[in-house]
Amino acid sequence: MNPYLPILFMLVIATAFALAAMALALFVGRPRPGPERKFAPYECGIEPVGSARDRFPVKFYLVAMLFILFDIEVIFLYPWAVVFRQLGVFGLIEMAIFLGILLVGYIYVWRVGALEWQ
Amino acid sequence: MRAYLWLIPLLPLLGVLINAWFGHRLPRRVSGAVACLVVFGSFVLGVAALIRLIGMPPGQRIIYHKLFPWISTGGFESAVALMYDPLSAVMVCVVTGVGFLIHVYSLGYMAHDPRYPRFFAYMNLFTFAMLMLVLADNFLLMFVGWEGVGLCSYLLIGFWFERKSASDAGMKAFIVNRVGDFGFLLGMMFIFAVFGSLRFHDVFKQVAADPATLTLTVTGICLLLFVGATGKSAQIPLYVWLPDAMEGPTPVSALIHAATMVTAGVYMVARCWIMFLNAPLALTVVACIGALTALFAATIALVQNDIKRVLAYSTISQLGYMFMACGAGVFAAGVFHLMTHAFFKALLFLGAGSVMHAMSDDTDIRRMGGLMKWLPVTGVTFWVGTLAISGIPPFSGFFSKDEIIWSSLAGPMGSWVFWVFGVVTAALTAFYMARLTFKVFHGQPRMSGEQKHHLHESPPSMAWVLILLAVGASLAGFLNIPPAIAHLLHLPERWTAAFTNFLEPSVGTHEQAVYLLEASVGGSQIGFAKLAHGLQHNAALEFGLMGITLALAAGAILTGRWMYVSRPGTGTALARKLPFLFRTLQNKYYLDEFYKAVIVRPGMALGNALWRGFDVLVIEGIVNGIAIATAIISRLFRVFQTGYVRNYAAGILAGAILIIWVLMR
Amino acid sequence: MTAPSLQIITWNLWVSAPVCALAASAMVTLIAGAFWPAFARWLTPCLALGGIALTAAFTILAGMLGLPPAGMQVMDSFTVVFDLIILIAAFITVLVSNHYVTRENLERGEYYALMMLSASGAMLMAASDNYVMMFLGLELLSIPLYVLAGFSRGRSESQESALKYLLLGAFASAFFVFGAALVFSATGSTNIVVAGDATERALVGTTPIYVIGLAMILTALAFKVALVPFHMWTPDVYQGAPTSVTAFMAVVAKAAGFGALARVAAAGPEGSWTVLLWGLSAATMIWGNLLAISQNNIKRLLAYSSIAHAGYLLMGILAGGRAGISAVLFYLLAYAAMTFGAFAAVIILAGRGDGAEDIEDYRGIARRSPLLGWTMAIFMFSLAGLPPFAGFFGKLYLFSAAVEAGYPGLTVLAVLTSVMGVFYYLRVTVVMWMQEPEAESGPAAQTSAPLLSRLVLSALAVAVLALGIFSSPVLRWTNSGSAGLERSAEAAIQMTLPEPTNAPAALSGGSR
Q1: Which residue of C lies nearest to B115 if distances are taken between CA atoms?
Q2: Given CB atoms, is C277 within the 8 Å cutoff of chain B?
Q3: Per-residue pLDDT for chain C (512 aa), expressed as one digit of tens each?
Q4: By CB neighbour count within 10 A (0-12 exposed, 13-18 middle, 19+ buried), where does B632 fall?
Q5: Of B222, B226, B248, whose CA–CA distance to B312 is shortest?
Q6: Which of A78, B298, C34, C327 could connect to C398 by a Cys-Cys bridge, CB 3.0–4.6 Å?
Q7: Cβ-Cβ contacts under 8 Å, B227 against chain C
Q8: Cβ within 8 Å of C, B 184-223
Q9: Cβ–Cβ gap C411/B179 under 8 Å
Q10: Do residues C338 and C390 lie in contact, with contact meaning Cβ atoms separated by under 8 Å?
C-alpha cells in the first residue's frame, strides 16, 4: 500500500485544487457580467473586428500536418545523437532505416503534389 | 460387394449434377428419365446388396466400407464410411424402391411444370441425402444426411414459391426442424465428449460393455437425440410444420413427408437401440410422446376437409405408432410399420394427387364425391390403401399395426396404457380414413359442373405406379407373419416373423432388450419386463386383443359408411351438436396459435424492441434527427444527445469497469 | 549497453522479416502509385498481390527455420499459421476490392498500400509476445483502417464512419497503453507470459494492479473484435465504410484481435478470468444474433452477424488448449472465406454508388443471376452453420472444444443462438430465391460484374464447400499452430528462469 500512497495524495490534491479554483471563482469573482460581454470572443482587451470563424484554405492544415510529421523526425534525432556512441553501427543502421522510411514518405508527399500551393 | 456400395448414394448425386447443369438444355423426357434411372440403379444395387446380406450367416450380416478419412486430427476422428446392415438394407430398399415409383409418377404429375429439371434435381438430391443418412456408419455423416434431407425438404415444400403460403411453409419447416436439430447436434457432441468417438460401432460397444454406470449420461444423450427425432419425424411438440408442408407438390408429400424423410427419426432411434435400452427413462418418454402424438393427430384428422391434410395428420399419427413401438422396446415392430407405412401412405398420397389432378387441383373433400365412377383405378387402389392403414387383414397394415399394438403391451417396456392408446387410435384411424374415402369416392358428386367436365383418370404412368404400390401395400405384410398366426396355420418356420428375424442383428432381440434394461436399472427391479416375457407367448391373449382391434376398426369403417354414404349429413349434425369439440379439433387444438403467441411473437418483439431501442432511437433517431414517436422515450434519450460517439465511449468505459469488477471480485 | 551479437541480429531480422516485407511492399506500392498514376489501375493491385505473395514466401521460410523468440516477437508455428491466414485474407481483399474500387472511383495508390500496412499490423499483433510490440501492431493495424473507412470522400456516411472509428479506436487504444503500463509497473515485465507467470508465482505482491492492467488490455482487444458491450461502433462503421474496406475490417481486424487474444488469454488469472470470458462470449452471441434478426440493411446485418461470430470465436479462446486455439484458427479461415464471399456478392449487388443495400432490393435476384443466387446461398448457409459447408465444421470444432474443456452450458447457448442465426441468414436466401422482383422505383440491384469478380465469387464458394468436405488437412495445419503457441509460452518461461546463460543456448530452447 505504501508505495501508492503518494499517488493517492496526488489524486486528492489535484481534485481539491480543481474544486478550490472553481469555488474561489464563485466566491471572489463578480457575479453575472453583462450578456453581451459574456458572449464576446474575448472578455477583455480589444473589441473584435469581424468574425473569427473565417474560412481559410485547407492547405494550411495539410502543411501543418506535414510539418508535425517531419518535425518529429528531427526531434527523434536528438536523443539518438546523445547515445550514438553506445549504439554503434547497429544504431546507425537503425536510424538509416528510420530516415529511409520517412524519405519514402517525403518523396510520396512531393510526388502527389501536397507541397505545392496551387 | 464393397466395390459398389458407394455407388448406391453416388448414382442419385450423378442425377443431381446432370439435371442441375444440363437439365434445361436436355429434352424433358431425357431429364426425367435420367432422374428415374439413377434411382432405379440405386434400387437394383440395394437389392443386390440385400441378397448378398441374406446369404451371410445372421451374426455377421454387416458390410463396412470406408471411403476416405474425413476429419482425423488429434482427438477428433471421423471418416466418410458406409455401413450396410439389415436396418440400413430395409431403409435403402424402401427409399430407393418407393422413391423410384414416386419419381416415375412425377414424370406424369409434373409434366406441365416449367421448372421440370429443377424438380428432378431436388428429388435426386433428396434421395442422395437420405441414402447418406441411412448408410452412414457414424453420427456425423448421419447428421450431414439429416441436414441434407431437411434442406431438400425446404426446397421442395417451397417449390412453388410464387405462392406465399408455399414459401412460408418451407421456412416454417426449416426453422422448426432446426430446433430439433440443435438437440441432435448437442447429443452428438455429448456422445463425442463421453465416448471419444462418433462411430456407431464404437459407441454402442462401450454402452453395451458397461450399461450400469452409463445410464444417467446415456439418458441425457438419448433425450437430446430424441429432440432431433421429434423435429424430423413431426412429433409433439414439433409436429406443426408437417401439415403446412403439404404446400409442396404431391409427389414430394408422398416421398418426403410420408414415406421416407419423416421416418428418419424412427430410423435414428432404432439405430441407437442399445443406447435407448440403456436409458429406460428416455424410452418411456419416447413411448409417451409417440402414444400421445398418435392419438392427438388422429383426432385432428377426424375433422379436416383438405384431402392432403387428412393424410398429413394421419402420417403424424402413424409415426407416433412407430415411436410407441420403439418406446416399448420392440424396435423391429417400429421399423416394420415404417416399411409398410411407406407403401400404403405413398399410395394414398399419390392417389390423392391423382384425385387433385382430376379435380383441377382442388383439395376440398366437401366438393368431391362419387369419384369412383370416373377414377376407377385411383378409387380401387385408394381403397387398398385405406384398408391397409385401417389394419384390415390381409393387407400389410394389419400385420404391422397389430404387431405394434401387441408389442405396446408385451414389449419389455410395454404397458396397458400404451395398448389402450394404440387401440383407440386404430379405431379413429379406420374412421377418418373411411370418412375420407367415402366422401371422395362414393355418395353424391358435389363438384361444380366445370370440374365434372374435366374429370379424367390419370395417365398410365401414374396409374401403373398406383397399382404397383397397391400390390406392395397388400402383400408387404406377409413378410412378417406373427408367430401366433403362423402356428395356427401351420406355416413353415422361415415364414414366421421373417422380417423381425432378419432385423434382429441390427435392433436386438427381446432377450437382449430385457438384459440391457435390467442392467440399466440394476437387477430385478424391472419386474414387468419378466411379466412381458411371459405375455410374449400367450397366444390366446394375443388373438383376443387382435379381435378387439379388428372389431373396432371394422366397426369404425362401417360407421363411416353409415355417416357419410347412407345418411349424409350425420357428420354435420354431430358437429353442430358438439360445437366446442368440433371447433377445437378443426383448429388443431389451437396449437399453431399458441406457438405464435408464446414463442414466435415474443421473439420477434424482443428482437424488434432491442433493435428499436438501440439502433433506431440511439443511432438513427438522434443522429439523423428523425422525430421520435413516443415523447417520453425521446425525452429520456435527449439526455444523451450531446453526441452519440460519447455514448459509445461511455459504453466502452462501462464495459471496462465491468471487466475490472469481474476480475477483482 | 553492449551491442547484440551479429547472429542474434540475423535471427531477429528473420523473425520480423514477414512484417517488414509486407510493409516494404506497401511502400513500393505507394511510390509506384504516386509516380505512375496513369497505370495505377492495374499496377498497384498487381504490386499488392506480388508483395503479399512475397510476404507469404518469407513467412513460410521463416517458419521453416525454427527461430527462437526474438524478445519482442516470436516466429512460432502459431505466427506462421496466423500470418498466412491474414495474408490469404489480404490477397482476397485485393481481388475483391478491384471491382469496387474501379466502380466507385477510389483508385489511388494509397488504397492498396494502406491495406497492406494494416495487414502488416495485424501480423505484428499476432506475432508479438510483448505488450509494447502488440500495441505497435494494434496502431499499425488501426490507423490505416481509419483512413480507409473514410476513403470514399464524397459520401458523408463514409466520413462519419471514419470519424467514429477514429475517435472510439483512439479511446480503446488508450486503454491498451494504460493497461500495458500498469502490467509493467506491477510485474516489471512487458512480456505477456513472463508478466503472467510472475503474478502466478507471486513473485510480486501487486496482483490487483496487474489484473486491472490486464482488464484494460482486454477492453481494447474486445473493442477491436467487437465483443458486447464494446460492439456499438460496429454497425455504424461497417455500414458507412466502403464495402471492400468493411470486408477487410470484418475479417482481418477481427482476426488480428483474436490472434492477440490467443496470446493474452493464457496470461489471465485463474477463476474470474474464465467467468469473464464466459460472460462476454454469451452476451456477444445472444446480442449479436438478436439484433441481426431485425436488420434490413445487408451491411448492418453482416455487421451484427460478425459480432455474433466473435462470440463463437471467444468460446474457442475460453476453451483454450490445443483444441480450442486450433478451432479458432480454423474458424477464422472459414469465416474469412464466407464473409468475403458475402461481401463480394454485396459489392456486385449494390451497384454504382452502393445504392441497393437493403435486403428487400434483392428480391428475386437469383433468377436474374443464378451465380449470385447460388453463391450467396452457399455463403449464407455456411454462416448459418449448416453442413456440409465450412461454417458448420468451424462451429463443430469450436463447440466440441468447449464441451471438452468443460463448458457444456455455453455450448448449449451457442447452439441455440446459432439456430436464431438461421432465421436471418435464411431470410436473405428466401428474398433472393423466392420472392418476385418488384417493379417499383428505388435502387435496383445489379447483377453484372467483371469476369474477375465472378471468378473470385465462385472460387470463394468452392472454398467454403471444400473447407467443409476436406477439413481434415486444414485442421491438422491449424493444430500445428496451436501447438506452437503452447511451446512458445513454455519457452518464454524457460528464459526467465534464473541462471543467465549466454543467449544462443537459452534461445534454442524454443526452436525445436
Answers
A1: C367
A2: no
A3: 455 566 777 777 888 899 999 999 999 999 998 888 888 788 899 999 999 999 999 999 988 887 777 778 888 899 999 999 999 999 999 999 988 888 888 877 789 999 999 999 999 999 998 999 999 999 999 999 999 999 988 888 888 889 999 999 999 999 999 999 998 988 888 888 888 877 666 655 557 888 888 899 999 999 999 998 888 888 889 988 999 999 999 999 999 999 999 989 877 777 788 899 999 999 999 888 877 877 788 998 999 999 999 999 999 999 988 889 999 999 999 999 999 999 999 999 888 777 788 888 888 888 788 888 889 999 999 999 888 899 988 998 898 888 888 898 898 899 888 877 887 888 888 888 777 776 554 566 777 888 888 999 999 999 999 998 888 888 888 888 888 888 887 777 776 654 444 444 434 443 33
A4: exposed
A5: B248
A6: C327
A7: none
A8: 185-186, 189-190, 192-193
A9: no
A10: yes
A112 touches chain C (CB under 8 A): yes
In chain C, positions 87-146, which contact chain B (CB-CB < 8 Å)?
none
pLDDT in tens, C189-234: 888 888 887 766 665 555 788 888 889 999 999 999 999 888 888 8
Q: Confirm if B97 and B134 have CB atoms less than 8 A apart.
A: no
CB distance C68 to C428 below 8 Å: no
Query: Residue A92: closest CA among chain C residues belongs to which residue?
Result: C3
Number of neighbours of residue B665 by Cβ within 10 angstroms: 9
Q: Over the stretch B292-343, which tens digit does the pLDDT of each residue have? A: 999 988 888 888 888 898 999 999 999 999 999 999 888 999 999 999 999 9
Q: In chain C, which residues have their Cβ closer than 8 Å to the Cβ of A84? A: none
C30 Cβ under 8 Å from any chain A Cβ: yes
**Which residues have C-beta within 8 Å of that of residue B208, sequence separation ≥ 6?**
B274, B516
B615, pLDDT greater than 50 = no
Interface test with A, best of C22, C27, C112, C114 (most A CBs within 10 A): C27
Kindly give, in sequence order, each residue whose CB lies less than 8 Å from that of residue B502, ignoring residues fewer than 6 positions away. B54, B86
As for the ipTM of the complex, it is: 0.86
CB B477 within 8 Å of CB B398: yes
Name the residue in chain A with its Cα closest to that of C24: A101
Chain C within 8 Å of B69 (Cβ-Cβ)? yes
Per-residue pLDDT of A52-62, as tens digits, reads 677 777 788 88
Q: Cα Rg for chain B, rounded, in angstroms?
A: 27
Structure letter (DSSP) for residue C447: -
Check C27 against A87: CB less than 8 A apart. Answer: no
Q: Do A111 and C1 touch (CB under 8 A)?
A: no
CB nearest A86 (choices: C1, C30, C31): C1
- C-alpha cell of C478? 491449424
Q: In which band, very low, low, confident or very high, does the pLDDT at B532 lie, cut at 50, 70 and 90?
A: low
**Contact flag A111-C34 (C-beta cutoff 8 Å):** yes
How many B/C residue pairs have CB atoms within 8 Å? 159
Cell of B163: 405462392
Angstrom distance (rounded) from CA C158 to CA C149: 6
Q: Of A88, A89, A112, which is closest to C34 when you measure between CB atoms?
A: A112
Q: Under CATH, which number does the domain A5-112 receive?
A: 1.20.58
Where do the domains of chain C lie? 273-469
Q: C252 exposed, middle or buried (CB, 10 Å; 0-12, 13-18, 19+)?
A: buried
Distance from CA of B224 to the nearest CA of C (A): 11
Q: Do B182 and C419 touch (CB under 8 A)?
A: yes
> What is the spatial distance between Cα C330 and Cα C258, in angstroms, rounded to a whole number?
12
Q: Are C315 and C410 contacting, i.e. CB atoms less than 8 angstroms apart? A: yes
A114 touches chain C (CB under 8 A): no
